[in-house]
């Protein structure tokens, strides 16, 4: 991004951190409108912390078990975000429910990736539930975080087919590959101002092919 100031991002994780890695990798491109300022985990044992350190990124642990309630944890999280002077927050496998306290403070500036085509399958075990229901198309969603769990305005979705013989593991792996593509894209769109949250709705400009569609199984003419 020649000349333009890159937006500073905090990535929140709880575990493996493969989406975090996708965000870090995308930020290596000088044209990327964001940079990762800090990776914050609520779990000291999160494997993603080591990955972030190896990438030369500052890391912080805020162990939620040290706090009496959610807001006390979120107050420290908020102070940490201010300390690192971040513009945006990316929840990348961050497995804490957020209250209206923090979602209100970061409204329009906090994104989350969720492994389903929302509003289907909010919460946990999304791949198991999709297989149980026999859906033929599944996927992932990046959305703004609101106090409504997994219910915030949708920025991007990616779809994958559900294949015969899929297990929760095989389906999760197929969805995860798409997660790694759509999360950096969504974060870039917000970081460069192409997409914004206004009065609770997504606004801005983005390119989409009106003729694009997906079916599974594929339709034959
Ligand atoms: C991802 O599949 C992400 O969508 C999901 O956790 C996984 C984290 O993997 N997030 C949620 O379920 C949030 N409710 P990662 O640590 O390898 O990015």
Rg (CA only) = 17 Å
CATH architecture: 3-Layer(aba) Sandwich
Describe the main β-sheet briefly: 7 strands, mixed
Distance linking N and C termini: 44 Å
Count of helical stretches = 6
Q: Strands of the biggest beta sheet: in what spatial order?
A: 3-2-1-4-5-6-7
Describe what you observe in this structure.
By secondary structure, this protein is an alpha/beta fold. The chain is built from 6 helices and 9 strands. Strands 3-2-1-4-5-6-7 form a 7-stranded mixed beta sheet, with helices on one face. It has a two-stranded antiparallel sheet with strand order 8-9. The longest helix has 24 residues, at 168-191. The structure holds glycinamide ribonucleotide (GAR). Glycinamide ribonucleotide binds next to α1, β5 and α6.
Give keywords:
221 residues, alpha/beta, Rossmann fold, two-stranded antiparallel ribbon, 24% strand, globular, binds glycinamide ribonucleotide
């Amino acid at each position: 991004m020649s000349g333009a100031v890159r937006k500073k991002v905090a990535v929140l994780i709880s575990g493996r951190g493969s989406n975090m890695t996708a965000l870090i990798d995308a930020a290596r491109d000088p044209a990327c409108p964001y940079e990762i300022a800090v990776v914050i985990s609520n779990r000291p044992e999160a494997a993603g912390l080591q990955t972030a350190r190896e990438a030369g990124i500052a890391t912080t642990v805020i162990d939620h078990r040290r706090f009496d309630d959610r807001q006390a944890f979120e107050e420290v999280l908020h102070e940490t975000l201010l300390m690192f002077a971040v513009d945006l927050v990316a929840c990348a496998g961050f497995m804490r429910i957020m209250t209206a306290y923090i979602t209100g403070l970061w409204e329009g500036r906090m994104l989350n990736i969720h492994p389903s085509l929302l509003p289907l399958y909010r919460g946990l075990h999304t791949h198991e539930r999709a297989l149980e229901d026999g859906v033929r198309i599944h996927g992932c969603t990046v959305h703004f975080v609101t106090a409504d769990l997994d219910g915030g305005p949708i920025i991007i979705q990616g779809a994958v087919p559900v294949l015969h013989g899929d297990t929760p593991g095989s389906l999760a792996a197929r969805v995860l590959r798409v997660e790694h593509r759509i999360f950096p894209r969504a974060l870039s769109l917000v970081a460069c101002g192409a997409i914004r949250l206004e009065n609770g709705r997504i606004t801005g400009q983005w390119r989409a092919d009106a003729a694009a569609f997906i079916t599974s199984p594929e339709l034959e003419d």
